[in-house]
Design a protein that fits this description.
The complex is a heterodimer of chains A (142) and B (191). Chain A contains six helices and no strands. Chain A has 142 residues and is mainly alpha-helical. Chain A is rod-shaped and about 140 Å long. With 191 residues, chain B is an all-alpha fold. Helices cover 70% and strands 0% of the residues of chain B. In chain B, 34% of the residues are buried. Classes of the chains: A mainly alpha (142), B mainly alpha (191). The A-B interface holds A 8, 12-14, 35, 38-40, 42-44, 46-47, 49-51, 53-55, 57-60, 63-64, 66-68, 70-71, 74 and B 15, 18-19, 22-23, 26-27, 30-31, 34-35, 38, 40, 44, 47-48, 51-52, 55-56, 106, 113-115, 118, 121, 126, 129-130, 133-134, 149-150, 177, 180-181, 184-185, 187-188.
Chain lengths: 142, 191
């Protein structure tokens, strides 16, 4: 006759397929007399039943359609993102660089004296008599 | 279509090949995910993620393992990640746990000698029983247990999925059964 420890080890979990006919008889005889082992055995059985029920459940028949749709969506999104990364981003950087260069050139031209401006200023100095007149004379004439 | 052809077509991005892959392995992957999360909706969402990840990384698959082994590996990783993030979220609602346990005891309050018959157990009670037993297993023991009991894989196949030796799988299963026995004993005292 098996004792509780042997029964517990034998019960293990899901090992019923390993029992011999003799062991099955001994197990049943022990369980009939031992409430503690009976309780453990019923819990093991309950867990087995739950697992069997869960395994029977069928997957949604539309799974493949749902997965393909999601995959196509994610492909579209990733191609959009890739277009942004590969085309729009460099284009934007290029435009910004051009704008920066244009602004720089505009500022640079403002402070650069062209030769023609210099000649005009030199000639106007001699043609303009103001600088030769005394300031007192100018004030008296006003 | 054999595996080699299927992989070639998948790598070429053929939609029919993707559809075939989901139709051939959808049920197996779903059951694996179900073994980890026990909720059909969650298992279905993870199954979708598994196939999307497979589609995205099919070009990395060299074909030296069976395609089912590769899918099982993704399913195990995805399910464990899902459980990890779920556990993180559950910290926020920890206060309600005790109340739920008392409300959904799996034992008949009049007779605590054995759990309620399966047909009398509500969804919450089943969920509580599973959360107190399988869900409390460490992740590597749980992976081995689910692949063996839910997917009926041999120890050799489990070893290939988990990238461990057959001896290691045997050890994991022995430990998983011992942990489950202890968890069930605890459940009897607390549930």
């Amino acid at each position: 006759m098996m004792n509780c420890n042997e029964i517990e080890n034998k019960l293990g979990l899901f090992s019923s397929e390993e029992y011999t006919e003799n062991e099955k008889r001994e197990l049943e005889a022990h369980l009939a007399e031992c409430p503690s082992c009976q309780r453990k055995y019923s819990m093991v059985q309950r867990l087995e039943q739950i697992i069997v029920a869960e395994k029977k459940e069928k997957v949604n028949p539309f799974l493949s359609t749902r997965v393909i749709t999601k995959w196509q969506e994610s492909k579209r999104e990733s191609s959009k993102a890739a277009f942004g990364r590969r085309v729009l981003q460099p284009a934007l950087i290029g435009v910004m660089m051009l704008v920066g260069v244009a602004i720089g050139l505009t500022f640079a031209l403002q402070f650069t004296e062209s030769p023609s401006d210099k000649t005009i200023r030199e000639l106007s100095y001699y043609m303009d008599g103001v600088h030769q007149e005394k300031i007192e004379t100018l004030l008296l004439e006003l | 279509m054999d595996q080699k052809q299927l992989i070639e077509q998948l790598q070429q991005g053929k939609e029919t090949a993707f559809r075939d892959l989901v139709n051939s392995f959808g049920q197996q992957v779903f059951i694996t995910c179900k073994g980890f999360v026990h909720q059909s909706e969650e298992a279905e969402d993870i199954t979708q993620e598994v196939f999307l990840e497979a589609f995205r990384s099919i070009h990395k698959f060299r074909g030296d393992a069976k395609i089912s082994t590769w899918l099982y590996r993704i399913a195990v990783n995805r399910s464990l990640n899902h459980l990890r993030s779920k556990k993180r979220r559950s910290w926020l609602s920890l206060g309600d746990a005790d109340a739920r346990y008392n409300e959904h005891s799996i034992f008949d309050p009049e007779d605590k000698s054995s759990p309620l018959p399966d047909e009398l157990m509500s969804r919450e009670q089943k969920s509580l029983f599973l959360s107190q037993t399988i869900d409390k297993l460490p992740k590597n023991q749980k992976a081995a247990f689910v692949l063996h009991k839910y997917d009926e894989l041999s120890y050799k196949e489990i070893a290939e999925v988990l990238h461990v030796s057959v001896k290691a799988v045997e050890a994991l299963m022995v430990r998983a059964k011992a942990t489950l026995r202890k968890n069930m004993e605890d459940c009897y005292k607390n549930c």
